[in-house]
Amino acid sequence: xxxxxxxxxxxxxxxxxxxxxxxxxxxxxxxxxxxxxxxxxxxxxxxxxxxxxxxxxxxxxxxxxxxxxxxxxxxxxxxxxxxxxxxxxxxxxxxxxxxxxxxxxxxxxxxxxxxxxxxxxxxxxxxxxxxxxxxxxxxxxxxxxxxxxxxxxxxxxxxxxxxxxxxxxxxxxxxxxxxxxxxxxxxxxxxxxxxxxxxxxxxxxxxxxxxxxxxxxxxxxxxxxxxxxxxxxxxxxxxxxxxxxxxxxxxxxxxxxxxxxxxxxxxxxxxxxxxxxxxxxxxxxxxxxxxxxxxxxxxxxxxxxxxxxxxxxxxxxxxxxxxxxxx
Length: 327
Prior knowledge:
Blueprint: E1 2-3, E2 7-11, E3 13-14, E4 17-18, H1 26-38, E5 43-49, H2 53-66, E6 79-82, H3 106-115, E7 120-125, H4 132-141, E8 145-148, H5 155-163, E9 168-169, H6 186-192, E10 197-201, H7 209-219, E11 224-227, E12 239-243, E13 246-250, E14 256-257, H8 271-280, H9 286-301, E15 313-317, E16 322-326
Parallel strand pairs: 2-5, 5-6, 6-7, 7-8, 8-9, 9-10, 10-11
Antiparallel strand pairs: 1-15, 3-4, 12-13, 13-14, 15-16
């Protein structure tokens, strides 16, 4: 079965290149993008996480200019801004640094949008924060997809943000506290909200198979999207590293975590690897896999599937139940 491609809405870096690093330069960014596009990802959103203002200014400008390169048109589709308007609490903040978290601000968002030359495609914010609804409404009016994540939001918070234009949940089940109330928590609230599409990380480490199965059944195929949340350490060997401002361990199993907190620090998997792990669970047909890995993400950000121009060919082997790249 031929596959039109895979679209990843959340990629933080590749093979040592960190899109949120103060040391990012144009050539490293271009090299990382070329590697991602050769790995089986047809199109993606480079993602910048919560950072100091000077890093946002420098890196957003670098990325925005590179997106104009001919080889990235219809392949690198815009920028995912994951923060800085997120929860500052431990757990919900995930690997983001507390000192760089900012309260929702239209004025500061305008600066970010200007530095990005208007190329922000997805904005992740925490729904419970004061001013989150105003910021969501403002971003939505500019045709930016607002996603809710790294939060402690309850049902009322999510309902309020949906009315303001929010469309999605960023990596549901992750970016949340280790211990939650059995019934009243942000995961149940997100699952129950039929207006919000859930992105999920299916690398085999962020979510157990039973949770993935439950999320897909609760949300339905049409409201599920696979993302890799690929870290700057994708493609590197096991070892100890510094990534996203954290001391991290990349285990031989592929699990990437901060040994001091135990929290995950993105994934070490490509989109292709995430899709193959999901395929191995035998939950979805080949057509359904393509929907959650290609058509649904494009629909969420308002991109026509016919516009995507993959660099490599992808197929799905029904007998082996896995995707493969043909270069």
